[in-house]
Amino acid sequence: MLQIYNSLTKQKEEFKPITPGKVTLYACGVTTYDFCHMGNARTLIAFDMVVRYLRYRGFDVKYVRNITDVDDKIIKRVNENREEYYAFVQRYIDIMHEDLKELGAIMPDEEPRATQFMPQIIYLIQRLFEKGYAYVGGNGDVFYDVRHFKNYGKLSCCDLDKMRSGARVETSENKKDPLDFVLWKLAKPNEPSWESPWGKGRPGWHIECSAMSMGTLGETIDIHGGGADLLFPHHENEIAQSESASSKPFVKTWMHAGYLQTNKTKMSKSSDNFFTIRDVLAYFSGEVARYFLLSGHYRSPLNYSEDALKQADQSLESLYIALRDITPTFMPSNTVFEKYFMEAMNDDFNTPQAFSVLFDIAHEINRLRDADMKTAQAHAALLKRLGGVLGLLQQEPSAFLQKTEGVSAGDIDKLIQERNQARAQKDWATADKIRDQLSTQGIVLEDKDGHTVWRKK
RNA sequence: GGCUGGGUGGCAGAAUGGUCAUGCAGCGGUUUGCAAAACCGUGUACGCCGGUUCGAUCCCGACCCCAGCCUCCA
Questions:
Q1: Among A178, A180, A261, A339, which one has the highest count of C-beta atoms within 10 angstroms of its own C-beta?
Q2: pTM to 2 decimals?
Q3: Is residue A10 part of a domain?
Q4: Residue A8 placed within a domain
Q5: How much is the ipTM here?
């Protein structure tokens, strides 16, 4: 039984899709005005893992991840760069796609962009007017009237009046209530704009996701999620808009990924403590970065450090060593490993626990490979399959273990030959000298069963 | 001020009322020409103080500390 923690009810619930066997899932993507950082990657990879596991469990998942391509920050950057708007946005979309590919992410089935949903957005705002939830403010912008929606605050669990006492809520004479938020914002000069019944302008931040979620997946969907920082106000506002327009529940299960931290504080663009995906990929492979991101439970904070990445690299290496020089064959029967793996993942996607099962299988392969190659091969097949559910271990082991920089495989083989000639003559001094030489170049040699294999260190 | 999560061994990071997380690193052993890898073994970990209990890291209460949201944020 798959259990998922629902941010709306604050508890784990048995997951039952609205339509048996099918899952509609919407993940909030990124705003494309800069390189994605590892915090973005964490959330993106968390949902990637969720989709993969749901599919492994046999669900027919429709996976939608949006792109926010209208936004104040984008406009600001575009004007600073004096760049053409769509060219700027497209550049960062391409970069995001490249980065996510490196991290082994699957593509969503649909990737809607806010700018492609203007008619739906405008229609949604019209519906909100008809039902009395929208009004034109003092400055001509269109606002959502939170006072009208009695369930406002049900996700982020805040009392309207208490939130107001926080004093960090910006007041404005344009709004009826400080918490009211913009649905449609009138354009200023040099801003991209779209025609609407309320004048040329652009949508507010939250309305686009409501329009895209309902437009691509329906008015009530199974899973909607994003980073924990979207709980309020973004997701709260999405609920308000969507449910007051459709009079239906918007989302059954809300999922939120925990923060990636650096030095125990949240990694974010505004704090200037972030590392982009590319920063990490300059030193570690995408698979190592992915392993790291999944090495903590998706809802827990995860601490980013170079050391943590190194540990991920080492861990992944030992899994690949188990898969080295072995041909995965058929699935083994009667093993308890897959059962344990599923139990871990069924418990709100407990990837750290699932990892421990992967290591159990790796140990089993290493124990069996001399005594019972056939069973070892079967376990190798299982390890690769379960690793695949997490988007890991799909490379050839040699591709992971022998990724060299600076030294060519041909040169290494030549030196290994020389060394083995020396070894045959028991010229240990020469042999060790060659090994030390390779070692300084980051190459480790292993002598086994009369031949020598190498890997990067 | 309101609200949400946390505090686990050198590091990362899970579960759990009483026998093992797991990984990385370390140590001892087997193996090896020496190594490496692998295998076997190895650690007085659970913020502080009370309480419940035959027994608590895990339940309850107080306290301390940390992070986060309440403003753009994955």
A1: A180
A2: 0.96
A3: no
A4: no
A5: 0.95
